[in-house]
What does this fold into?
Amino acid sequence: MNLHKFTAPLYFFTALFLALGQLLTISLTTMASDQTTLEESLTAVIQSPLLKKMSYGINVVCLGNNTPIFNYRGGELFGVASNMKLLTTAAALEYLGSNFEYKTYVTANGTITPSGELLGNIVIKGSGDPNFSGRFYQGKTTTVPEAWAAAVAGRGIRRISGDIVADDTVFDRNYTNPNWPVNQLSQWYCAPSCGLSFNDNCVDITVLPSKKTGDTVSLLVEPNTAYITIVNTCTYTANKKEHGYSLYRKPGTNQISVKGKFWINAMPEKQWVTIHNPALYLATVFKEALVGKGITVTGHPRLINEGDLSAVKGETITSAVSTMEQTVTVTNKNSQNFYAEQILKTLGAQVQGSGTLQAGLVVLNNFMKKLGFDVQEYQIMDGCGLSKGNRLSPSMITAILAYMSKHPAKNVFYNSLPSSGVDGGLQHRIVSPKYRNKVHAKTGYIAGVSALSGYVDTATGDIIVFSFLINNVKSLSDARKIQDDVCAALANHYN
It folds into this structure.
């Protein structure tokens, strides 16, 4: 495959397309009429006063003939935020494929007596699967562990003399990236990665309204598990101006504090708080599900140890399977950091033989090398883009997009991206019917960074790839407006 590193010259140019021998000539408001018009149109957009004091770069390429269309600082490095997920998911499809399967097994390690007692342990062997949540089960968080418990009961097991053992050894136990903001590790977007995970490694906490001023707020906790402890000092207030509360998990524990005031006329508000030690979290919820099925568990949930690893493997009771396709889709559509980090360590485990951050980064670097970029030309710190240390150029991102447009899994990659006016991060952006579903692109935001990169579909059958990275963002709404205006200008040029 012929790979291209797209670097357009600093002056702006484009090419007109001939269709049936006729030159397309459209008014400026609906289509650029010549090279200068398109150049001037895009230049006018990115030179908007709204971007004053912001730093930005843009690269645009027509895929049909690999023609550079527009470039402004496209070869310079910028923070990319969640546009990093484009690289991570592309690498997953390149090295593992869309049909790669995560397989998790529940085994009975021991003897099952005629009376239904398991003389041994139940072991959950993880594969790094991020998909055990209510996302695929009408929002019911505990569907998977309850199905496992039903399978154990169906095997005739009524009593377990041993423990519920969580085998998370496919990954290391460095749960969070050292480059992430330590004061935000309770937030869902900092969810830990683990070889055995559950509910995006978060607990869902909904604050419920009430008219009882001064009372402690009522909370709906999902899953309802003994694995977490909640210290709730948040109270109801009749004063709307006092409305403000916080949820915080004490580092290294699963103690969650809820503080502040909740206005009595507010709607219910759901928050997601990360948990510590995800594998033990799933083992605990699974034990609770077993007990709910009437199965007595004598032992306790725990992590696997050396003795378990050397023990003879037992009977497989049930298993769970999910694919890389669904994993990539959630990663990009929902911009789910947890999913991206699970993919990164999966790449490390499957390609490099080590489920670590470092091994995953080796795979990403190898992919960048395949695209024609040397490791000294950029900087990658994680798989999701949360780290401020990530640095890529717009031309690097368009190279990734161009490569994936010819990939066997191109449809999976393309369909995983948010669609303008339809879903994901673009559901409420570029919403005009004229542009609906015309832009498929990955959004990105962290403090000071706004990014948008992807594809613009054309009526002529051509596809444009673009990357617009903005740093030193003063106003997120202004940055997004200019990005959307660029997409509209590109769509107008070809539609």
